[in-house]
Amino acid sequence: MNLKYIVITGKDSFDPHNRSEGFIKANVPILIDIFPCSQSIYYGDMTRTFVKSNASKELVKMNKSVNESLEKH
Known about the structure:
- By secondary structure, the chain is α+β, with helices and mostly antiparallel strands.
- The chain contains one helix and three strands.
């Protein structure tokens, strides 16, 4: 089994299968997508978003909206 992952930062993080380049900067979203797999089978997929330092008010608002939506379903 292989463990594959994608790390995306900043404005590129809107697309979880995009590829970022460069340094991880402060105050921007950092999206990490981890997916264990074999050559032909995916065993799972976990995506998490982090922020190095402080999240902007806009990111906090988006996070709150996503959490509220998840609680309703």
